[in-house]
Amino acid sequence: MNFVRTGFYTTIATAARLAAGLVVIKLVAWFAGPEGVGKLGQFMSLMSLLAVLAGGGISAGIVKYVAEYRHDAQRLSRLLSAALWYALCASCLMGCAALLFSRQIALWLLGDSHYESLIRILAVAQLGIALVNYILAVINGFMDVRRLAFVQVLGSATGVVMVVGLSRWLHLYGALLALVVGQVLTLVVGLPAWWRSPYFRRSMLRMRFDREMTTRLAAFSVMTLTSALLPPLINIAVRNHLALQFGWEQVGYWQAVSKVSDAYLLFLTTAINIYYLPKLASTHERASLALELRSAYRHLLPAVIVLAAVVYVLRNWVTHLLFSADFTAANALYGPQLIGDVVKIASFVLSYLMLAKAMTRLFVISECVFAVSYLALVYLFTAYFGLVGAMYAFAVNYLLYLVFNVLVARRYLGET
């Protein structure tokens, strides 16, 4: 596998996922306006939280260890049996908790008990979502980017059909419901594609507790849960703060610009996850690691700079295309957000070194510190600059995170 081939298939898969996400945003913007887009962001944050918790947060661990053990059948079988056991146990626990507190979650996130049934459906769907995450992680670990892209493209197409159909019938509720159903329906594509792969073995569907492998996965679980849980939780807190200070319409503007960033950065973050995580995990010589990181910067930084510049120049057209004329006020927020995006990608490349080399304690501490610092900066900057202060906070926080990751990488690679 090389970066160009990976980039080609990643681009196809990411474009499909991006198109699906933009359909959802566009529909919600049409029939619910900025307030609806703000609530869409809240629900998607909840889905991100539960999706990670459903699988025990071990997807990155599966990718890393499958990449390492793929030529060792015995260790690979032990790993995957333990991973499936871990993921399904975690999804059962998470689903039960979400069912138990469905009313409170609906009121807290969306301010309306009408969405309680939606939270219950999401809770039941956790088993299916956990299995989808497991399958995609195994395929990714084998660096089978073509098959991974195939599953993601067809899964996204299924999701678009669901969104269009259910949103016309149930409006905002239907769009949110389609997000849940679409994730589970990915199994319809993922399972057959995986079964037909040359590396599939029936033993990969066995569940068994294995102390050594579970301990290894648990370390990744802590790291992944930290990195995956903190951003949605912090974003929920940021939305609630912005809503309290400026109202839900202003939250919709902030959410719109954030979604545009998420959309175009999806191409780059997916490439980092699909290519660089297994590559760094399977590379043990520090000189080779340094070369891989330099290669990442040569490919990714020019790409993110160009994309950010294009989005800034076309921001008015992008806002009208993806949302509606009601979101024109969001155009003033793009500048600092796009600068932050460039710094974010620069920091992400280095942060994956901590994931690939299982620097659990350092990774967890850094994620917690910078999550809290982002929230603190939002409170500080919005008090002085208004809504755009949230974008300033985003850029400054990632600049601090980049400095931290440079220090970590230089120390690990022995360049200091």
TrEMBL record:
<keyword id="KW-0812">Transmembrane</keyword>
<feature type="transmembrane region" description="Helical">
    <location>
        <begin position="172"/>
        <end position="195"/>
    </location>
</feature>
<feature type="transmembrane region" description="Helical">
    <location>
        <begin position="121"/>
        <end position="142"/>
    </location>
</feature>
<keyword id="KW-1003">Cell membrane</keyword>
<feature type="transmembrane region" description="Helical">
    <location>
        <begin position="216"/>
        <end position="236"/>
    </location>
</feature>
<dbReference type="GO" id="GO:0005886">
    <property type="term" value="C:plasma membrane"/>
</dbReference>
<feature type="transmembrane region" description="Helical">
    <location>
        <begin position="387"/>
        <end position="408"/>
    </location>
</feature>
<feature type="transmembrane region" description="Helical">
    <location>
        <begin position="7"/>
        <end position="31"/>
    </location>
</feature>
<feature type="transmembrane region" description="Helical">
    <location>
        <begin position="296"/>
        <end position="314"/>
    </location>
</feature>
<dbReference type="GO" id="GO:0009246">
    <property type="term" value="P:enterobacterial common antigen biosynthetic process"/>
</dbReference>
<feature type="transmembrane region" description="Helical">
    <location>
        <begin position="149"/>
        <end position="166"/>
    </location>
</feature>
<feature type="transmembrane region" description="Helical">
    <location>
        <begin position="43"/>
        <end position="67"/>
    </location>
</feature>
<dbReference type="InterPro" id="IPR050833">
    <property type="entry name" value="Poly_Biosynth_Transport"/>
</dbReference>
<feature type="transmembrane region" description="Helical">
    <location>
        <begin position="79"/>
        <end position="101"/>
    </location>
</feature>
<feature type="transmembrane region" description="Helical">
    <location>
        <begin position="362"/>
        <end position="381"/>
    </location>
</feature>
<keyword id="KW-1133">Transmembrane helix</keyword>
<keyword id="KW-0472">Membrane</keyword>
<dbReference type="Pfam" id="PF01943">
    <property type="entry name" value="Polysacc_synt"/>
</dbReference>
<dbReference type="InterPro" id="IPR002797">
    <property type="entry name" value="Polysacc_synth"/>
</dbReference>
<protein>
    <submittedName>
        <fullName>O-antigen translocase</fullName>
    </submittedName>
</protein>
<feature type="transmembrane region" description="Helical">
    <location>
        <begin position="334"/>
        <end position="355"/>
    </location>
</feature>
<feature type="transmembrane region" description="Helical">
    <location>
        <begin position="256"/>
        <end position="276"/>
    </location>
</feature>
<dbReference type="InterPro" id="IPR044550">
    <property type="entry name" value="WzxE"/>
</dbReference>
